[in-house]
Design goal:
Blueprint (H helix, E strand, L loop, with lengths): L1 E4 L2 H18 L4 E4 L5 H13 L9 E4 L1 E3 L10 H13 L6 E2 L8 H14 L5 E4 L21 E4 L2 H7 L12 E4 L2 H5 L4 E5 L5 H9 L17 E6 L7
This protein binds 2-amino-2-deoxy-6-O-phosphono-alpha-D-glucopyranose (GLP).
Amino acid sequence: MYKILDTEDEVSRYAAQRLLATIAARPEAVLGLATGGTMEPVYARLVGRLQGGAVDASRLTTFNLDEYIGLAPTHPQSYRHYMERHLFARLGLPRENVHLPDGLAEDSEAACRAYSEAIRALGGLDLQLLGIGSNGHIGFNEPHTRFSCRTHVTPLSAQTRRDNGRFFSDPGEVPTHAITLGIRDILEAREIVLVATGPSKARIMAELYHSPVDEALPASALKQHPNVTILLDREAAALI
Ligand code: GLP
């Protein structure tokens, strides 16, 4: 379940390889994708391999984990914008095949229901890629979110807003709420790969390693899943 590699570069290469293997095995695969600084080198590797013709990605479907409420898709810090910049535009993926929660939906409850249902209608996620927040969140499932929740609107914790403030020119601009895939949806993926790199993840990875399954630590839900890889570099694994 835990795989520790020396460097961030090796971790990114390994994660990209897992994604490529999934696409090679099933070109119409349904992938669950994540955002955040951790994923940038993963997507850079993936794009490099796909542009080199490693496998055909044109029939993929993707669903992102989360999106901020109130940011337009063109906002530079929206996750839609992130995905366009790091993956969708670079691969020329058909936009009807890529999905993110709609942070501007008028009826967000209905949008949440439809999001989980759309994934299930396609037979579920073949692989879910995850990062981890410094408080143990996955997607934007903050501590004490019920593991039985599907896609839902969530307030963001002060810690998460502080952590993500580094991407905004004014940290006060970080939205207060987001839409996230629920832990129940995440656990239905056939395979899960969680990636954590760098010293800022060392404390939470040690906590996760020693924690029982506990809603206080959202990532601990993964311990109930039969096919999870937790990929770490030496720095993120330093306190385990
Ligand atoms: C955000 C995202 C998470 C991501 C986490 C870690 O809060 N909602 O999906 O895993 O940040 O991000 P980073 O990789 O930048 O540390």
